[in-house]
Amino acid sequence: MQRRQFVTLASHTTAVLAAPVFMRNAWAQEGGITGKTLTIGCSAALSGPLAGFGQDIKQGAEAALAHINSRGGVHGRTLQFNMVDDGYMPQRTTDNVKQMIGQGSAFALLSCVGTPNNTAILPLIEEAGIPYVAPLTGASSLRKGGRNVFHVRASYTDEVRRLVQRLAGMGLKGIGVVYLDNGYGREMLEDATRSLAEQNIQPTVQAALATDGKNLADVLAKVAEARPAAVLLATAGAASVELVRGVKKTVPGVLMAGVSVTLTSDGLKQLGDAGSGIAVTMVMPDPNRAKTQLVRDYQAAMRAKGHQDFTLGSLEAYVNMRVLAEGLERAGSDPSRAKLRTALAGIRNWDMGGFVVDYSGQSPYVGSRFIDLGVLNGAGRFLG
């Protein structure tokens, strides 16, 4: 009954130190561009607990690039995508980005994955002055200015608030929170407790899950003891899969609700029927419903690359790459990083075909506040 109610209601919604001195001279020179090519860099998890996000980014971004390059690239330059694995480890992310900037191998950056990872690299990016589009994090703590960073997705704060409002609107009072035991999860916990307080609700349980899931048994015991009516999943990646399975076995019938990064497309496949009934927020339109021109374009680009599975993660990466390409187009045939920053900041009410990006000309630059709600079926798709 709760599941149907959620679907019905949802249908109405549409720190690191400064860089050493020896690197600054290298940063002063713009790299990653020739007369024929322009390279976009990315550090993301292609291994480790968030590998599913990295694979989605790779597929979606490369699908967008293939389409753009098939039409002549941007001002005659072929766009290239240099994606480096960091295993979701902030220090590796930092090392990767330092190398890209120091060696001049990237003109701009796109969609590095993770809240702690982006926390680590944003000071480097501001120091270097390299444009960075669409960090794959919705952490509000990373949206407090910055002249070089252009977020696309809505914030986790907005996602969590929407979920809590929906659950409270269903009359649910016993709501617990399981959060990932890192910077991402702790910030999500703050968002959740604040949103619950707005609804005069105190969380029935707060449990920290290790990023590798090694304390899952203890977490499940805490949830079982509290017996909440609903659990907010402030987790991400591989740890979420066993958490969902465990909660379903330990507290049968409990409603689970997560944000856009709680489960990767690989995680949904692994869960199968066990994922049925999970409520999630979406910061992109449903990638399997070709109701908008954006989704139709995305599906065509994915098919052209031989991909038949359409996921929210790859759609987000496709959108992010197109936003960066739009900025390059507007920057002109003789682009510089300064011109690209100005061009991106100038994007106002750009309708991509059912998804609007608007940077409003001032920082913090956040292009979209799109949030939709849905409930997953056993095939990892959203119920109609």
Question: Can you walk through the features of this model?
Answer:
The chain is 43% helix and 15% strand. The protein is built from 13 helices and 14 strands. It is α/β, with parallel strands linked by helices. The strands form three sheets. Strands 2-1-3-4-5-13 form a six-stranded parallel beta sheet, sandwiched between helices. It has a six-stranded mixed beta sheet with strand order 7-6-8-9-10-14, sandwiched between helices. The protein has a two-stranded antiparallel sheet with strand order 11-12. The radius of gyration is 20 Å and the shape is globular. The chain has two domains: 21-153 and 291-368, Rossmann fold (3-Layer(aba) Sandwich), CATH 3.40.50.2300; 156-282, 3-Layer(aba) Sandwich (Rossmann fold). The two termini are 16 Å apart. Helix 9 (238-250) packs parallel to helix 10 and helix 12 (312-331) crosses helix 13. It has helices at 2-10, 21-28, 51-70, 90-103, 115-128, 156-169, 183-198, 216-226, 238-250, 265-271, 293-304, 312-331, 337-345; strands spanning 37-44, 78-85, 108-110, 132-133, 149-151, 175-180, 206-209, 230-234, 255-258, 279-282, 350-351, 356-357, 365-366, 372-375.
